[in-house]
Write a structure and sequence with these properties.
The protein is mainly alpha-helical. It has helices at 3-10, 12-16, 18-28, 32-45, 48-57, 63-90, 96-106, 108-123, 129-143. The protein is globular.
């Protein structure tokens, strides 16, 4: 594959989140660049790319399975927007690491519960819809604060 094409393809995944980042930046009245840095750092902290990949790997044998997968992906994106906005509203620090550390300290109990569930999910050979639904519930609890 030519280098230029490979570089363009590699940018597709992050571009998926561009509108979410703009929405969060607008809601918290911040510049897009620091919001993007926090958004991706928080996504990494909470294993969102891995969860999204596991959702994508779920079988979709019927139209309803396909709709369920799409709903899980939409919910995941919504939670990340909510979590990023909350972290940005609550902490004026400039760097994502400080913002995430402060956010984790404020949400320590729920954060640890999410980490525990994600650890169990990662240990499963092939996470199924039920397991991912439970993980999504824990993330929802964390994002609803």
């Amino acid at each position: 594959m030519p280098h230029e094409l490979a570089a363009r393809c590699a940018a597709f995944e992050p571009m998926f989140y561009a509108l979410d980042i703009v929405e969060v930046a607008h809601s918290v009245q911040r510049d897009i660049e620091p919001v993007a840095r926090l958004h991706f750092a928080l996504a990494g902290e909470l294993d969102f790319p891995w969860i999204r990949a596991r959702i994508g790997a779920l079988p979709a044998e019927t139209h309803w399975h396909t709709l369920a997968k799409a709903a899980l992906r939409d919910d995941l994106a919504s939670m990340l927007r909510a979590l990023a906005a909350e972290a940005l509203r609550a902490d004026g620090a400039a760097d994502p690491a400080s913002q995430i550390a402060a956010w984790k300290a404020r949400n320590a109990v729920l954060y640890e519960r999410v980490r525990q569930v994600l650890g169990e999910l990662r240990a499963a050979e092939t996470p199924d819809l039920a397991m991912l639904s439970v993980a999504m519930r824990e993330l929802r609890n964390l994002s609803a604060r």
